[in-house]
Design goal:
The structure is a homodimer of 239-residue chains. By secondary structure, chain A is mainly alpha-helical. The first copy, chain A, is built from 9 helices and 3 strands, in the order H-E-H-H-E-E-H-H-H-H-H-H. Chain A has 2 domains: 62 residues, Arc Repressor Mutant, subunit A (Orthogonal Bundle), CATH 1.10.10.10; 145 residues, Up-down Bundle (Four Helix Bundle (Hemerythrin (Met), subunit A)). The longest helix of chain A has 30 residues. Chain A binds a DNA duplex (30 and 30 nucleotides) through helix 2 and helix 3. Chains A, B: GO terms for molecular function: DNA binding; DNA-binding transcription factor activity.
DNA sequence: TTTTGTGACGTATGATCACAATTTGCCTAG
DNA sequence: CTAGGCAAATTGTGATCATACGTCACAAAA
C-alpha cells in the first residue's frame, strides 16, 4: 500500500547518544591497542573513567562482547581476551580469506576518484612511516583497507573485517611493548596497481601479502618464543 | 506472534541471566524467520511480550544491532532490515567464502566420532524432510553446519557465519510466505563423504553446492520478480 | 485546499536504587 | 607458616524514575 515510498533518509544522524560515544571510544581504544590482553574491565570503573552512569557502559560492553572484542567470563567478570598461537593463525587465515573476498568484489566499482582517495591515504601513511608514528600508522592502515572495501556500495563483509581488527588490536600492542620491531613493507602500492588494472588475481595476492607482511610475522614469532619459554605458566607480561 | 518453541537449543542448561535469555529468544526468532523483514520493533513492546523490564531487552537489541540483525534508524526507531537483490547476492557470496574456509580448516580434526554425530543430525533432517517440517529443517541445517565448523577447536569464523544466518533468517520467511517452494537437495551426504575422504577440494565444492541449492535460487527469483513488478526501468536502488 | 505552527502523547535514554552473587581480605585453627 | 572459613566490599543485574526528543494530530492562516 504505502511501502513503496522508501524515503531514503540521507540526513546523517549525529551519534549524539552517550552510549554510542562510549561504544566508539572503547572500540577505538581496543582496536588501536590501548587495552592490553587479559585486562579485566569493570562496568563501574569504565563509567567513572568516562564520567557517566553505568548504563551506557553496560550496553557498549555488551555490544563489544558480541564482536569478540571483550570476553565475558562465566563468573560475571569480563576482560580483554588473551591470544594464543592457534587462535592467531586461525584469525589471520580468516582475515586473508575475507579481505581478499571483499577486495575482489570491489573491482566493478573502482573509479579514478576512488583511487585518488586511496592514494591520499597512502601518502599520509608514508609520512607516518618516516616519523615512526605507530598509532597513526595503524589507524591509517585501517582507513586504507576500509576505504578499499567500502567502495563496494553493497558491502556486507565490513562488520566482520572490523571484528577481526578488533580481536587483533590488543595483541598488536603486546608485540610492540615486547620490543619486537616489525617491518612495514608497503604493499599498498601493489594493491593500488591491481585496482587500476582491474586485476582480481593480482589484487588478492597483494592483499594477502600486505596482511602477512604486517604484524603477522612478528606476532607469530612472539607467540612461538613465549610458548617456548613458558614451561611454568608465567604471566605473559605486565604493564 | 513468535515464541512457539521453548528454546530447543538451550533446554535446561544455564538458567543464566534474563538478558541472555531475551537475547537468545530474539536471536532465535530472527534466525528461524519468525520476524519478517521491515518489522518495526519497540523496546517496550518486546519487554511486555517477554514479561520483563525494558532493561534486558534494550541490551539484547543492541547486541543484535551490532550483528546487523536489527537495524537502528537514526530517529530512535529500529526494525528488521529489508532485503535487496544486491545485498542478497553479496551476502551469499560472502557466505560461500567464509563457510568453505571454515569447512576446509576442519579437516585436521575430523574423526569417526565427529562424522557419526553429523550423520545423526543428517538422519533427523531426512525425517524432517518427509514430514515437511520447515522450521525443524532450518534449525537442523544450522545445527549440521555448526557442528561441522565447530569441529575445529580454535574456530574463529563461527560468530561471523551465525551473523550471516541471522541476516538471512527474516528473508527466508518472506520467501516461504510468498508461496515459493524451494527444493532441498541433500548435499549433506556429499559433505560427509568429503569429510571422510579428507578431501578439501571436494569439501569446498559440496559446501558451495549445499548453500547455493538452498534458499539461494528461490530467494534470487523472488527478488528478481519483485524488482520487475515494482519499477520497470527506474533507478535500481538508493545508496 | 494546502501549508505551517502548536500541542499532546509515546518512546528511547540515562541515572539511580535495590538486590544477589562473587571476590577479597582477614582472622582463626591446625 | 599454611589452610580454611567467615565477613565486608565490590560488582553485575534488573527495575523504576525523570527527562529529552520525535511523531502525529489538529487547527489556524495563507
Amino acid at each position: 500500500m504505502d511501502e513503496q515510498a522508501e524515503m531514503p533518509d540521507i540526513a546523517v544522524r549525529s551519534p549524539s547518544t552517550e552510549q554510542e560515544a562510549v561504544f566508539r571510544r572503547l572500540r577505538s581504544a581496543i582496536m588501536t591497542g590501548n587495552l592490553a590482553p587479559e585486562t579485566t574491565l569493570t562496568i563501574r570503573g569504565l563509567a567513572d573513567l568516562m564520567a557517566c552512569s553505568p548504563t551506557p557502559v553496560r550496553e557498549a560492553v555488551r555490544r563489544l562482547s558480541t564482536e569478540s572484542a571483550i570476553e565475558v567470563l562465566g563468573n560475571r567478570r569480563m576482560r580483554v581476551p588473551a591470544m594464543t598461537l592457534a587462535k592467531f593463525e586461525e584469525i589471520f587465515s580468516l582475515r586473508v580469506t575475507i579481505e581478499s573476498h571483499a577486495a575482489v568484489r570491489v573491482l566493478p566499482y573502482v573509479s579514478d576518484v576512488i583511487i585518488e582517495g586511496l592514494e591520499r591515504i597512502d601518502t599520509r601513511m608514508d609520512e607516518a612511516l618516516v616519523t615512526d608514528d605507530q598509532l597513526g600508522l595503524t589507524v591509517l592502515n585501517h582507513d586504507f583497507h576500509r576505504a578499499v572495501y567500502m567502495t563496494n556500495p553493497h558491502q556486507a563483509a565490513m562488520p566482520m573485517i572490523e571484528s577481526i581488527w578488533l580481536q587483533l588490536g590488543p595483541f598488536q600492542r603486546q608485540i610492540l611493548q615486547s620490543g619486537l620491531e616489525f617491518y612495514v613493507i608497503d604493499r599498498h602500492k601493489e594493491i593500488l596497481r591491481a585496482l587500476r588494472d582491474r586485476d582480481p588475481g593480482a589484487l588478492a595476492v597483494a592483499i594477502e601479502a600486505d596482511i602477512r607482511d604486517g604484524i603477522y610475522r612478528s606476532g607469530r614469532q612472539y607467540l612461538l618464543d613465549r610458548a617456548k619459554l613458558s614451561s611454568p605458566s608465567q604471566v605473559p607480561y605486565g604493564p
